[in-house]
């Protein structure tokens, strides 16, 4: 990691003159969660990417200085088949880095460092996707690693193909949308599980019901049985896998497992690093065989050519079948008008900074709201509150009902800062006016029961800085009287 003395202009200094690590400036002082015990004692011979040698093994014990009960921090991880490991290239030897590097695969030609997986980079952080063999107490056992023994590990995150693999994005989003539609038109049933499992293909230009039926037909039998499994298997096309391998840096063919005896830990670890797990492990269809084979039944069918799509990774069902359903998103006519105005092209009305069109902005707002951005707290205890967030230059006001989110206002972020900032000592006339307009509209749409005196409508939880307004998504809520549940608006 870069020396702290090289921090950016915002870094504060302690009285002793040292730069003070500050999260907000990105000067993170890291503390390894553990030090990897790996079958590779040195850099030489260590594969350049984890995919190169599936039998390379390692073990990471979470340090007690990080968590008193390390096993608690690993709870649930065993349900994933793969994990991302973030680590420090601690044996780089120097902290120098260059803008252009020569990856072995280019055989001497130079290319920008950020186009490569070179260990020599401004922050010497590595990222490896490893197979999770088992979790035992406060330790994780991995295979398919490209890290050397003693590597300081900064973090572990589960690999979720739906989030981490672009070829899954559109399928995931289509499923998400279909599920919201099905929820709305009451057709959500067991097919839903299949949709969520990522196994079906979305049929374009069909009604929701037809698509769901089609998926159900196509994935009946064996797959329906599998959908009841605890976890979901995520697929990758063989050619994608090939391409992924091809894009990696030059593979090291010297996958020597030789290492001095003293480099190894206790006998159990030694046998794991040398041979693999000593008992069968079933991770939702990925069977790790005893006696050293890290091969899964899916790997076997892939190699035997019996699978047209290769199931590569496994996640627990709560990831794909989350109890929180996607929401239907709608815009009031007023919000539609706001959106059009925002991108009117009128010189006095600045349009978007990041979005290319009002349609893109609309889709982004829909996507954000469909995934229900509220915290659990807000979802459970502040159902009756207006919800605000800012994306690009659009400051969005909405409310949530049973299975839907409705956008009631979209304002220019800079304007909305004015209109919704905490009224201290008193709101600007414009702010007051805007606030009561929104309340009024929501009240009208929610019906007479809501017309009782608005509750603390001006209580804002969080103000917003103008810089955040244009670069990040921010949200907060104001109190309003409870909204009737299950309302359907035209
Ligand atoms: C090309 S890097 C890729 C690492 C990771 N998959 C990534 O993309 O960030 C892999 C190489 O880094 C080297 N390496 C592994 N662990 C290291 C460590 N702790 N310090 C320095 N170099 C290391 C090994 O030579 C290995 O072949």
UniProtKB/TrEMBL annotation:
Belongs to the tRNA methyltransferase O family. Residues 198-242, 418-458 are annotated as: Disordered. Residues 207-242 have a biased composition (Basic and acidic residues). The keyword Phosphoprotein does not apply. The keyword tRNA processing applies. Pfam families: TrmO_N. Residues 444-458 have a biased composition (Low complexity). It comes from Mus caroli (Ryukyu mouse). One of its GO terms (biological process) is tRNA methylation. S-adenosyl-L-methionine-dependent methyltransferase responsible for the addition of the methyl group in the formation of N6-methyl-N6-threonylcarbamoyladenosine at position 37 (m(6)t(6)A37) of the tRNA anticodon loop of tRNA(Ser)(GCU). The methyl group of m(6)t(6)A37 may improve the efficiency of the tRNA decoding ability. May bind to tRNA. It catalyses: N(6)-L-threonylcarbamoyladenosine(37) in tRNA + S-adenosyl-L-methionine = N(6)-methyl,N(6)-L-threonylcarbamoyladenosine(37) in tRNA + S-adenosyl-L-homocysteine + H(+). NCBIfam families: tRNA_TsaA. Keywords: Methyltransferase, S-adenosyl-L-methionine, Transferase, tRNA processing. It comes from the Eukaryota. This is tRNA (adenine(37)-N6)-methyltransferase. GO terms for molecular function: tRNA (L-threonylcarbamoyladenosine(37)-C2) methyltransferase activity. Residues 30-168 form the TsaA-like domain.
């Amino acid at each position: 990691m870069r020396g702290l003395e090289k921090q950016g202009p915002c870094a504060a200094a302690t009285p002793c003159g040292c730069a003070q690590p500050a999260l907000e400036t990105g000067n993170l002082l890291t503390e390894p969660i553990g030090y990897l015990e790996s079958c590779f004692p040195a850099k030489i011979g260590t594969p350049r990417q984890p995919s190169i040698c599936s039998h390379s093994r390692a073990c990471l014990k979470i340090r007690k200085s990080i968590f008193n009960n390390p096993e608690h921090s690993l709870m649930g991880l065993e349900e994933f088949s793969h994990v991302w490991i973030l680590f420090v290239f601690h044996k780089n030897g120097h902290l120098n880095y260059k803008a252009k590097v020569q990856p072995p695969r280019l055989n001497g030609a130079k290319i920008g460092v950020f186009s490569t997986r070179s260990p020599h980079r401004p922050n010497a952080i590595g990222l490896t996707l490893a197979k999770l063999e088992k979790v035992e107490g406060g330790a994780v056992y991995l295979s398919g690693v490209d890290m050397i023994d003693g590597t300081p590990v900064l973090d572990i995150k589960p690999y979720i193909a739906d989030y981490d693999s672009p070829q899954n994005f559109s399928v995931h989003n289509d499923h998400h949308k279909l599920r919201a539609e099905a929820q709305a038109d009451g057709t959500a049933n067991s097919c839903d599980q299949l949709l969520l499992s990522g196994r079906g293909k979305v049929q374009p230009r069909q009604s929701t019901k037809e698509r769901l039926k089609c998926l159900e037909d196509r994935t009946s039998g064996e797959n329906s049985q599998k959908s009841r499994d605890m976890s979901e298997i995520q697929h990758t096309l063989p050619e994608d896998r090939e391409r992924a391998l091809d894009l990696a840096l030059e593979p090291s063919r010297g996958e020597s497992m030789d290492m001095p005896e003293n480099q190894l830990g206790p006998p159990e670890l030694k046998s794991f690093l040398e041979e693999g797990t000593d008992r069968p492990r079933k991770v939702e269809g990925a069977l790790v065989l005893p006696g050293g084979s890290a091969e899964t039944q899916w790997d076997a069918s892939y190699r035997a050519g019996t699978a047209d799509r290769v199931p590569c990774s496994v996640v627990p069902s709560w990831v794909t079948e989350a109890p929180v359903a996607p929401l239907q998103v709608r815009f009031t006519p007023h919000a539609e008008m706001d959106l059009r105005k925002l991108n009117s092209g009128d010189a006095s009305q600045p349009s978007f900074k990041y979005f290319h069109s009002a349609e893109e902005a609309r889709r982004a707002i829909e996507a954000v709201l469909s995934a229900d951005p509220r915290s659990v707290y807000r979802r459970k205890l502040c159902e009756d509150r207006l919800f605000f967030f800012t994306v690009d230059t659009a400051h969005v006001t909405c409310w949530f009902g049973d299975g839907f989110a409705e956008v009631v206002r979209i304002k220019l972020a800079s304007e909305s800062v004015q209109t919704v900032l905490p009224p201290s000592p008193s709101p600007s006339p414009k702010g007051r006016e805007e606030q009561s307009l929104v309340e009024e509209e929501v009240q009208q749409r929610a019906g007479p029961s809501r017309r009782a005196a608005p509750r603390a409508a001006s209580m804002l939880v969080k103000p917003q800085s103008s810089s955040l307004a244009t670069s990040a998504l921010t949200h907060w809520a104001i109190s309003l009287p409870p909204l009737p549940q299950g309302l359907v608006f035209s």
